[in-house]
Amino acid sequence: MSVISFICCLLFIITISQASAQPSFVNHFCLSDKGRFTANNTYHTNLNTLLSNLTSNTGIDYGFYNLSYGENMDKVNAIGLCRGDVKPDECSSCLNNSTVLLTQLCPNQKEAIGWYDKCMLRYSNRSIYGVMETSPLFYLSEITNATDVDQFNQVLGNLMSNLTGIAASGNSLRKYAAANATAPNSQTIYGAAQCTPDLSEQDCNSCLVEAFSRITSCCIGNISGRVAAPS
Ligand SMILES: *[C@@H]1O[C@H](CO)[C@@H](O)[C@H](O)[C@H]1NC(C)=O
Ligand SMILES: *[C@@H]1O[C@H](CO)[C@@H](O)[C@H](O)[C@H]1NC(C)=O
Ligand SMILES: *[C@@H]1O[C@H](CO)[C@@H](O)[C@H](O)[C@H]1NC(C)=O
Ligand SMILES: *[C@@H]1O[C@H](CO)[C@@H](O)[C@H](O)[C@H]1NC(C)=O
Ligand SMILES: *[C@@H]1O[C@H](CO)[C@@H](O)[C@H](O)[C@H]1NC(C)=O
Ligand SMILES: *[C@@H]1O[C@H](CO)[C@@H](O)[C@H](O)[C@H]1NC(C)=O
Ligand SMILES: *[C@@H]1O[C@H](CO)[C@@H](O)[C@H](O)[C@H]1NC(C)=O
Ligand SMILES: *[C@@H]1O[C@H](CO)[C@@H](O)[C@H](O)[C@H]1NC(C)=O
Ligand SMILES: *[C@@H]1O[C@H](CO)[C@@H](O)[C@H](O)[C@H]1NC(C)=O
Ligand SMILES: *[C@@H]1O[C@H](CO)[C@@H](O)[C@H](O)[C@H]1NC(C)=O
Question: What keywords sit in the KW lines (predicted)?
Fold first, then answer.
């Protein structure tokens, strides 16, 4: 029950904040246990430099941004990823908005991550490139039962397993797959799977398998479910 009320609460917040000018994240985490910085120290200015470079970079049209800036203890690493079906201009606008919002929401955390509907932004003082991470993780579900749950789940499982294989075998710039399948009662099921493309095929596969197992445990039998994690 606490999971359900958490989701309801989250959806409620999203509905309300859509009315304000700055669209809000679907979810974000300020990872305070990974360390803090003091305002205007070297880490902070490096972070600002890095994020302004990320938003001014117009040379990327495949939706994946991977940057580092600074030296030693003050080095900042960032990854930006857009959903695989998002066009480059929308992608850079989404990441631009993310840099503003994430630094407002997490004003002194060295590590933070935020998700809009169309993109994800994360940064850390650790090296995060090529490291598979499934935590922190969150999910959203539409709590309306599918009809014919067993057949729905079987088609869904096949679809997601196919998409996992296709996404994982993508290249170092893009690991994304989307498709639909028809359940026996002619409902259409839409699916998408994506990893940050810095992962190996094997890590991407493990990540998506774990993510889908979490969807299965939270949202099984419901007509929609979405799960997101750093990788
Ligand atoms: C990141 O910052 C934390 C907290 O300040 C520190 O303990 C950790 O060693 C730093 N990591 C790196 C790779 O510098
Ligand atoms: C940090 O720098 C900004 C802009 O230069 C300034 O407005 C702010 O007061 C400074 N904060 C601290 C704590 O020094
Ligand atoms: C991402 O950053 C890593 C570490 O700095 C670097 O080795 C790699 O070439 C970069 N990849 C891309 C696609 O920019
Ligand atoms: C940021 O962009 C400026 C101007 O394009 C460039 O001189 C600088 O090297 C970039 N820094 C990083 C960390 O990419
Ligand atoms: C990024 O956002 C800022 C403020 O939200 C805006 O002024 C700027 O034009 C945006 N830049 C791009 C490239 O969209
Ligand atoms: C970025 O924010 C502006 C308003 O602040 C909004 O109009 C725009 O749609 C946002 N872009 C994306 C891709 O969410
Ligand atoms: C949805 O499915 C669950 C589990 O199968 C069941 O307990 C519940 O009564 C169903 N709700 C509706 C509205 O059919
Ligand atoms: C999954 O892939 C197999 C083999 O390519 C195909 O026969 C099957 O129809 C696919 N299933 C779905 C639900 O996409
Ligand atoms: C489902 O996928 C097929 C094949 O990719 C595509 O032709 C079709 O338009 C899609 N159906 C819907 C309803 O989006
Ligand atoms: C839909 O999800 C809710 C919350 O996770 C769960 O209680 C319910 O049983 C699910 N519906 C079905 C048909 O399993």
Answer: Repeat, Signal
